[in-house]
């Protein structure tokens, strides 16, 4: 009986459908196309972007005789994947070695000069040559250079902490050659007190001359007056007073020398 | 100590002045009764006082002792020279007693041995605040007055560089400024101090004041001073003339000149005076300061120059500054060089004892613990033997 068979098949069919539902999960032909993880679209079936696998670092592809200035043309932070050197930095733990370069903060913190290799510098010089003049022919030896343009080189070898790695004194260049405008240095500019040609010298000279005139003793000349021992001591005391400032010692020295100079008991 | 002081102050306020004086006259008996317990009555006087009232005879044996300045001298010589607190003390005690101290003795020794043919030597008293520089200066002025020198005393040079209401353009030199009020006051005091000299010294030039008035050559210096006092406009110029004439004539030997300036660092400092357009005035633009600077130079003979540098009253100088170079600055030092710096320091123990005895004698210290050893130790600690500080402390007791 067909009618009797129909319900049976009808009944069967849902079961088969459910079976088919299970079977659809297994067989890929009947279900809608789903991307596999190995395709280029990086979405997982759960909607979260999948992380692509890390590529091998650039260092593996670098040739030994490559053009290094093109890897580091400018000052750039240390890139462990771009520097083919097996550098280690850090304090080792017990029974360990310094940390490797991958993910090493210490290597990032310090300054690097990877952009200033000799090859790079040579390239810079070549490029700058167009803008330079000839080296003066007369300055052909180091001694001559030092003689005409002496430079003072101060090196500081100490540890210091601060916001910058540069030593601020490195910006100061001292050339020993005196410039024209330095001749206009006045007394107010002097770093330390110089007795010669100072007003103190003038004062003492005048005073002594007046004393000598009062005593009718005009034979002594200016140089002789300035050369006496008392004046020498006075000069020393004034210089120390001016350079060191007032303190008990310098003041008493000054007092004694003036007393002796002016013949006060 | 503080509670005691406040109690005492409140009790002092209750007493009226009449009653206070009454206690004062009863002093000798009370003092005798008090001190019988401790020391013989003569020794306080011996420690703190000396009968030698002539500064010329003061020597090391008088160190620490007070000597009396007669009222006559007070009126003439010290009409404007003494520090204000000392003047109040003189009025209270009805006597002017000055302590003989080592810096002043040193200076007197130099002054006694001055060679008047040589250029005038400059002596500078320096020291911390309240150590007695001005009074040492006054001591030397008293000495010179007794020796019949002409005293040119500027009591406080700082007064000339600040708080001047009326600045006139100088009649003599258009670039400079006159200070008529201060100049006329100073001339009045100068006249009282040196009355007898003013008729003796004759001016050596003719000075024309204005179209109608002039001072002829050969007339006494007193006339110039009178002119300055009467015609206040010309007062500063009169001062300038006085200074010039004195400087010129002191070398001739008729008289000896003492130039005493208190607070000489004002001459080379800054002023607080301004022109009408609010631009500041430099000290050398004030005629008085300009002339005074010439006076303290050592290009004249026949006298001495005694100066003090003080921070009190000075402008734009830190409170703790007391050393000569700090207060004079570079310009001042170069102008005064060479000079003899004399340090005035705090009391030494002997002087401190003497000062306390002097106050006790005059019944200035009314506190019951004042004459005891602990009281003295406390005063010593609080004042650190600084004369000015001690005087201020004792004023409360």
TrEMBL record, chain A:
<protein>
    <submittedName>
        <fullName>28S ribosomal protein S35, mitochondrial isoform X2</fullName>
    </submittedName>
</protein>
<keyword id="KW-0175">Coiled coil</keyword>
<keyword id="KW-0687">Ribonucleoprotein</keyword>
<keyword id="KW-0689">Ribosomal protein</keyword>
<feature type="region of interest" description="Disordered">
    <location>
        <begin position="21"/>
        <end position="62"/>
    </location>
</feature>
<dbReference type="GO" id="GO:0003735">
    <property type="term" value="F:structural constituent of ribosome"/>
</dbReference>
<dbReference type="InterPro" id="IPR039848">
    <property type="entry name" value="Ribosomal_mS35_mt"/>
</dbReference>
<dbReference type="GO" id="GO:0032543">
    <property type="term" value="P:mitochondrial translation"/>
</dbReference>
<feature type="coiled-coil region">
    <location>
        <begin position="204"/>
        <end position="231"/>
    </location>
</feature>
<feature type="compositionally biased region" description="Low complexity">
    <location>
        <begin position="23"/>
        <end position="41"/>
    </location>
</feature>
<dbReference type="GO" id="GO:0005763">
    <property type="term" value="C:mitochondrial small ribosomal subunit"/>
</dbReference>
Automatic annotation (TrEMBL), chain B:
<dbReference type="InterPro" id="IPR019368">
    <property type="entry name" value="Ribosomal_mS29"/>
</dbReference>
<dbReference type="GO" id="GO:0003735">
    <property type="term" value="F:structural constituent of ribosome"/>
</dbReference>
<dbReference type="GO" id="GO:0005763">
    <property type="term" value="C:mitochondrial small ribosomal subunit"/>
</dbReference>
<dbReference type="InterPro" id="IPR008092">
    <property type="entry name" value="Ribosomal_mS29_met"/>
</dbReference>
<dbReference type="GO" id="GO:0006915">
    <property type="term" value="P:apoptotic process"/>
</dbReference>
<feature type="compositionally biased region" description="Basic and acidic residues">
    <location>
        <begin position="51"/>
        <end position="62"/>
    </location>
</feature>
<feature type="region of interest" description="Disordered">
    <location>
        <begin position="41"/>
        <end position="62"/>
    </location>
</feature>
<keyword id="KW-0496">Mitochondrion</keyword>
<dbReference type="Pfam" id="PF10236">
    <property type="entry name" value="DAP3"/>
</dbReference>
<keyword id="KW-0809">Transit peptide</keyword>
<dbReference type="InterPro" id="IPR027417">
    <property type="entry name" value="P-loop_NTPase"/>
</dbReference>
<keyword id="KW-0687">Ribonucleoprotein</keyword>
<comment type="similarity">
    <text>Belongs to the mitochondrion-specific ribosomal protein mS29 family.</text>
</comment>
<keyword id="KW-0689">Ribosomal protein</keyword>
<protein>
    <recommendedName>
        <fullName>Small ribosomal subunit protein mS29</fullName>
    </recommendedName>
</protein>
């Amino acid at each position: 009986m067909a009618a009797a068979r129909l319900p049976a098949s009808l009944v069967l069919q849902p079961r088969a459908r459910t079976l088919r539902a299970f079977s659809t999960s297994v067989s890929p032909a009947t279900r809608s196309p789903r991307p596999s993880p190995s395709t280029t679209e990086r979405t997982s079936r759960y909607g979260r972007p999948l992380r692509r696998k890390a590529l091998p670092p650039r260092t593996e592809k670098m040739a030994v005789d490559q053009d290094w200035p093109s890897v580091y043309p400018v000052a750039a932070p240390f890139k462990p994947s771009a520097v083919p050197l097996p550098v280690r930095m850090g304090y080792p733990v017990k029974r360990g070695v310094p940390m490797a370069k991958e993910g090493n903060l210490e290597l990032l913190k310090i300054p690097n000069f990877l952009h200033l290799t000799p090859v790079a510098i040579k390239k810079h010089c070549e490029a700058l040559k167009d803008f330079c003049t000839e080296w003066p022919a007369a300055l052909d030896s180091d001694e001559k250079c030092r003689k005409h343009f002496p430079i003072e080189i101060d090196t500081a070898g100490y540890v210091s902490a601060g916001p910058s790695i540069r030593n601020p004194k490195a910006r100061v260049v001292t050339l020993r050659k005196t410039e024209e405008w330095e001749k206009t240095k006045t007394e107010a500019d002097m770093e330390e007190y110089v007795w010669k040609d100072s007003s103190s010298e003038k004062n003492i000279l005048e005073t002594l001359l007046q004393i000598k005139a009062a005593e009718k003793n005009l034979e002594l000349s200016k140089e002789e007056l300035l050369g006496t021992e008392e004046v020498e001591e006075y000069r020393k005391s004034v210089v120390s007073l001016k350079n060191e400032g007032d303190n008990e010692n310098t003041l008493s020295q000054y007092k004694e020398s003036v007393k002796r100079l002016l013949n006060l008991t | 100590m503080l509670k005691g002081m406040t109690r005492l102050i409140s009790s002092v306020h209750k007493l009226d002045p009449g009653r206070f004086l009454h206690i004062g006259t009863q002093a000798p008996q009370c003092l005798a009764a008090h001190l019988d317990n401790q020391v013989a009555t003569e020794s306080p006087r011996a420690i703190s006082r000396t009968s030698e009232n002539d500064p010329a005879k003061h020597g090391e044996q008088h160190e620490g002792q007070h000597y009396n300045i007669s009222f006559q001298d007070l009126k003439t010589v010290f009409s404007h020279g003494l520090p204000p607190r000392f003047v109040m003390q003189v009025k209270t005690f009805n006597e002017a007693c000055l302590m003989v101290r080592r810096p002043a003795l040193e200076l007197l020794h130099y002054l006694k041995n001055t060679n008047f043919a040589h250029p005038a030597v400059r002596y500078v008293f320096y020291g911390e605040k309240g150590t007695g520089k001005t009074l040492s200066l006054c001591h030397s002025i008293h000495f010179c007055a007794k020796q019949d020198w002409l005293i040119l005393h500027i009591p406080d040079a700082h007064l000339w560089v600040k708080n001047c209401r009326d600045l006139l353009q100088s009649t003599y030199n258009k670039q400079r400024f006159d200070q008529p009020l201060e100049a006329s006051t100073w001339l009045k005091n100068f006249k009282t101090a040196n009355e007898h000299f003013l008729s003796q010294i004759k001016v050596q030039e003719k000075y024309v004041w204005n179209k109608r008035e002039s001072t002829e050559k050969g007339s006494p210096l007193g006339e110039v001073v009178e002119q300055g006092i009467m015609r206040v406009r010309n007062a500063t110029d009169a001062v300038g003339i006085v200074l010039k004439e004195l400087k010129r004539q002191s070398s001739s030997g008729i008289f000896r000149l003492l130039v005493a300036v208190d607070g000489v660092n004002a001459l080379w400092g800054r002023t607080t005076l301004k022109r009408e357009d609010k631009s500041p005035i430099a000290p050398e633009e004030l005629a008085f300061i300009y002339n005074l600077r010439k006076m303290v130079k050592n290009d004249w003979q026949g006298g001495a120059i005694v100066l003090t540098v003080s921070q009190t009253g000075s402008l734009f100088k830190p409170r703790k500054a007391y050393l000569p170079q700090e207060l004079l600055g570079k310009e001042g030092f170069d102008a005064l060089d060479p000079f003899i710096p004399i340090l005035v320091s705090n009391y030494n123990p002997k002087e401190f004892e003497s000062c306390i005895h002097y106050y006790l004698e005059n019944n200035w210290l009314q506190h019951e613990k004042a004459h005891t050893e602990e009281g003295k130790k406390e005063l010593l600690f609080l004042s650190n033997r600084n004369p000015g500080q001690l005087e201020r402390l004792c004023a409360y007791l």
